[in-house]
């Protein structure tokens, strides 16, 4: 593996802006088909973004790692050795719902997609604590979203909630590699990582991000969060969207669940039964593949499930969160 230095990260190629495609869904589709991503500068309502950021700040202040009254998530030196990957208070509060329901946010995505947005209940609240130095492999988080969400026809929307410079890290993307197969190692269960050296180190792109910006990318686009070597926590949110006119997954209540099939009651009260086989990708919140039996224990009858399917067969099953 070629060593990547701090200078390499600072000198990464910038993302190409796509603001000129807003309001022209055909141009938007053509650009994401070419690059595998769309980078929009200052398109999301600042008040909506600020309200979302404050919910993150409230958690960090409550946890004692950011000082009361702070307006930026500057680390106060408290112990963060056991800082969690999943920010459960934000998941429990489902704060993404208020954000996407904001009229200005909904209007932007309707204009962008050419149809009202359908939000998949797949959200990651990213709070990356500061670290002292770059790891040997700064792209250790490299992955393609589609691998862990088989059959989900949607775009990932990465929303920065603060200014994110090269020290804070942020999102990095390898453009143009979304048109082939997965790069994940299928012989490396249960995470099936993309190994070091598979993606070109000299073709990662990132930009200086600010509140109001948006990166929307294809499910097959390789990407990674970069290390945070700043003095503050890095705040962002991942949400998944599709035009409501597209091929949508099934979200609903588990009515029956065996090793061979699952029955789901959708929002309209219809019961849909999907068969399950050895290729069905079952997962929990961390992304790694688990057995159908394990998922049955975690998703009992009465819980909600998110499923992709084809021809009456479940392609993937996961919790909607």
Sheet/helix structural class: alpha+beta
The percent range for helix content is 10-25%
Number of domains in the coordinates? Answer: 2
CATH superfamily heading of the largest domain: q2cbj1_9rhob like domain
Instruction: Please provide the ordered H/E string of secondary-structure elements.
Output: HHEHHHHEHEEEEEEEEEEHEE
Number of beta-strand segments: 14
Largest sheet: 7 strands, mixed
Could you name the CATH topology of the largest domain?
Jelly Rolls
Rg for CA atoms:
20 Å
**What proportion of the residues form beta strands (DSSP E)?**
15-25%
Question: Which strand order does the major sheet show?
Answer: 10-9-8-13-14-11-12
CA-CA gap between termini: 35 Å
* CATH C-level name of the largest domain: Mainly Beta
Number of helices: 8
Residue ranges: pLDDT <50 for 5 or more in a row?
none
**Overall body shape:** globular
Whole-number mean pLDDT: 95
CATH A-level architecture of the largest domain = Sandwich
């Amino acid at each position: 593996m070629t060593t990547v230095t701090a200078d390499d990260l600072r000198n990464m190629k910038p993302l190409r802006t796509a603001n000129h495609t807003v309001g022209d869904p055909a141009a938007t589709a053509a650009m994401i088909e070419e690059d595998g991503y769309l980078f929009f500068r200052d398109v999301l309502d600042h008040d909506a973004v600020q309200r979302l950021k404050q919910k993150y700040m409230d958690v960090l202040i409550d946890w004692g790692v950011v000082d009361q009254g702070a307006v930026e998530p500057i680390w106060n030196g408290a112990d963060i050795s056991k800082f969690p990957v999943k920010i459960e208070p934000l998941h429990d509060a489902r704060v993404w719902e208020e954000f996407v329901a904001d009229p200005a946010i909904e209007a932007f995505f309707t204009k962008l997609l050419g149809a009202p947005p359908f939000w998949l209940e797949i959200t990651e609240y990213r709070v990356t604590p500061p670290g002292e130095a770059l790891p040997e492999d700064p792209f250790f988080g490299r992955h393609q979203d589609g691998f862990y969400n088989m059959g989900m026809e949607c775009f990932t929307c990465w929303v920065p909630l603060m200014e994110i410079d090269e020290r804070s890290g942020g999102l990095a993307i390898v453009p143009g590699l979304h048109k082939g197969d997965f790069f994940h190692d299928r012989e490396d269960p249960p995470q099936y990582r993309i190994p070091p050296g598979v993606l070109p180190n000299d073709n990662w792109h990132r930009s200086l991000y600010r509140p109001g910006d948006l990166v929307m990318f294809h499910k097959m686009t390789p990407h990674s969060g970069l290390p945070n070597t700043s003095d503050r926590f890095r705040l962002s949110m991942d949400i998944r969207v599709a035009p409501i006119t597209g091929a949508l997954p099934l979200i609903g209540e588990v009515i029956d669940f065996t090793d061979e099939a699952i029955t789901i009651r959708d929002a309209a009260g219809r019961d849909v039964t999907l068969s399950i086989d050895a290729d069905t990708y079952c997962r929990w919140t961390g992304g790694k593949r688990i057995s159908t039996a394990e998922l049955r224990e975690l998703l009992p009858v009465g819980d909600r499930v998110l499923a992709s399917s084809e021809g009456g067969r479940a392609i993937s099953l996961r919790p909607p969160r």
